[in-house]
Amino acid sequence: MSDNRSGMNRRGFLKAGGTALAATLVAQAAKAAPGGGFAGQSLQVWSCGGLAEAFMPANAMYEQQSGGSISYTGAFAGALGKSLLGGNAQTEVFAPRVLDLAKKLKAQGKMLSFQPLCYTRYVLVTPMGNPANITSIQDLKRSDVKTLCSPDSSPPGGQAAMGVLKKSGVLEQAKAQSIYLGSCVQHDVADVASGKAHAAVVELRVTRLPRYKDAFEIIDIPEEFFPAPPIPFTIGVMKWAKDQEYARNFVEFITSDAGQAHFEAAGFVPARSEEGERLTHKYGVVDA
């Protein structure tokens, strides 16, 4: 009886132990999966402001899956980077534009690691119907084409677009024929949508903003005319991350297929794609 009872107890113990082990494995698996098992925790995430339209829905999806919360700031990456490099600012995850910024933060020991996130590209936009019949950026040399340039827009919108025009050999004509020289790409390009100007160079992401949905016809610009520095975006875990497992899990989610889909929808080339892998190799986006 004693043996039977002992046997029953042992079976019960094994059953209970097995149940506990299974629960532990499920919990570990959930925590190991991107977006699992961080209920009640909070994570501070900063990024270049141009990524905000991608990060906001991605963050919402991650919060739903993880049970945690994301405190997100999207702003001018140069200013955020300066405050992190030389100031007292802190964040737990940072997604900057320009590879050199990530490398400098890593060299200072403030960014623990980084990986490629996505890539931007520049396009030529015309009003719907393309009234000036523009087929390539070389058409901006035509005297009948009214352009729109915004050289004083905050980087990289102004300087980079001017760089594209310069490398294309059409900068002087484009500036001379601009209906005005603007200072905010996202605001100024409304005058292309309305037909006041025939064409402008913008990042593809601008055409995905809700206010410009179906507002333009889009013409590709050869990649050889793109300035290299503003093209790559990276994402990295910072030394101030209170729970590095949580921070790394968030980064893992953002660079997963589910997370990357939001960046593609917002007009970026996801790093986790065949084209993204080509650009990662081209621009040398490696955490060495």
TrEMBL record:
One GO molecular-function entry: iron-sulfur cluster binding
Signal peptide positions on this chain: 1-32
GO biological process entries: molybdate ion transport
Record InterPro entries: ModA/WtpA, TAT_signal
PANTHER family assigned to the protein according to its UniProt record, in alphabetical order: MOLYBDATE-BINDING PERIPLASMIC PROTEIN, SULFATE-BINDING PROTEIN
Name under which the protein is recorded: Molybdenum ABC transporter substrate-binding protein
UniProt keywords, alphabetically: Iron, Iron-sulfur, Metal-binding, Signal
